[in-house]
Amino acid sequence: MSSTRKAFAASRIVTCDEARATSGDPLGAVANGAVVLEAGKIAWVGPRQELDPAVPVTDLGNAVVTPGLVDAHTHLAWAGSRHGEYAVRMAGGDYEAIAKAGGGIVSTFRAVSEASHEELRALLTARLRRVAQLGVTTCEVKSGYGLLPEHELKQLRVIASCANEADLPGIVPTFLALHALPPEARTDRAGYVRRVIDELLPRVKEENLATYVDAYLDANAFQIDEGRALGERARSFGFQLRLHVGQFADIGGAELAAELGAHSVDHLEAVGDAGIAALHEAGTHAVLLPIASFTLKQAPPPVAKLRAAGVPLVVASDANPGTAPSESLPLALALAVRNYDVTPEEALLGATRLAARSLGLNDRGALRAGAAADLVVWDLPHEHAIVQPWGTPRTRLVLRNGAAISGTL
Ligand SMILES: N=CN[C@@H](CCC(=O)O)C(=O)O
Ligand SMILES: [Zn+2]
Q1: What is the pTM of this model?
Q2: Which key words tag this protein in UniProt (predicted)?
């Protein structure tokens, strides 16, 4: 059997495996380690001197090997550009005021409405290829810029079509059902929400276009009762939930997410103690989005309180054309460490094992026997170097299910 096996040896195999974690080494690193791959899965991980001598081994030398990164929050399926809005915001313009005036999400809605399936697919594919170079092997991708049924379904079908491509990162599709009111619905908010719940959600189910359902809950976005109506119906259809909560104001989104058993609440710049306690109780993950708070010049979420309460911390890119015009999960990790006082170990776990768990995926996010052979060979000498703000891809090789999606040996 060993003929179908192959091994990589490197100075640091950073497993992110809970079974290997210790208080001094939460990432479970194996110095001078090896990882054996077979049939798209990891067959063995351990010290190089214990490697089966019959397995052919590629020696990567002074390099770090980690699980493939998992980006648990992206809006990568978009068209157009918001550079005009960005410049206005950098000069002091307010994101929510711009949205109220018909810009923001609604301006991307216009661009997505005008884009064909093929155009949108080409944009998404190019972005997925670039995020693979950055070390991402699994990516959550939301809709939420189609807003009207025809264009939401187009966005979701584009996302689904990329999910079958073996040479791209794996995709977890999310129906971001309530993101903004399209201009067509300005005078009938309740009717819009009802149609999303009663008509669009069943279509998304029927076509099996999403695993998760999401909503943007905030003072100037959708409200708790709207989120509850959507969330309860979504759960009754078998969807799992992840919710935009507390980006600007604490309106009780964390409590609602906990009540509905959401897998994650994302943003959390504004969340109170009761919300944090509820998240812990429900086992809900906090997805931190430091690129968004960087462009919005916001104070960080209460990371110390979340940590103290035992809420699992995930870090994601939030890649979108408005608040996080970046595709880089490694940049998000760097900003989480710099601006949020997240430790490098927390950041890396929050972009691997915990990110995968927040997406309901237990077959990846850690280097251990039986997991998918999703891994990154970094052109860096230590895992702490991954969270430095390089601004360039620092991967040598990125494997998904044992096959290269970026780089060569
Ligand atoms: N705030 C809600 N949604 C996105 C931003 C969308 C946009 O501005 O286009 C976010 O996660 O930051
Ligand atoms: Zn988002």
Answers
A1: 0.98
A2: Cytoplasm, Histidine metabolism, Hydrolase, Iron, Metal-binding, Zinc
